[in-house]
Amino acid sequence: MILSFFPNGLERYVIGGLLIGAGVALLFATTGRQGGVSTFFSSSWSWLLRTPFFQQASLRDSRQWRLVYALGLLLGGSLYVLAGQPVEPSHLPLWKLVLGGLLIGFGARLGGGCTSGHGICGMASLSGGSLLMVVTFLSTAIVTAWALYGLGVAP
Predict the structure, then answer these.
(1) Can you give the pLDDT at residue 58?
(2) Do the Cβ atoms of 119 and 137 come closer than 8 Å?
(3) pLDDT in the model for residue 66
């Protein structure tokens, strides 16, 4: 039954999960910080924007390691492609990708972090707030997917 959800096999998901877990564990062990991708966006803007929000010490002081963290994500994806693994391009129009990205960014800011911060690091540190956020993320995603399916918008 469970294998029907993974038509390409479980291996890539297990390997990916182990690499992500090792990466955030290494980050925590070497810096004492939790990794999350949404804060990278804000810390990156601290180089360009002089508004008080983006000039907070927590954003300015963490932007170097967050940049290395984000480059590691890009490097991992690039190595996957260079290894000859199949990558299926998105068939969505650009406007839908942009709108989705904006909505995800808004939700991450509203929720005080993204799924990587709450779902991987927060859950690993047994944070009750992160558990609540992950349940909220997943519930919203499931309800939205079923609603779109019911409307005939999604396969």
Answers:
(1) 84
(2) yes
(3) 83
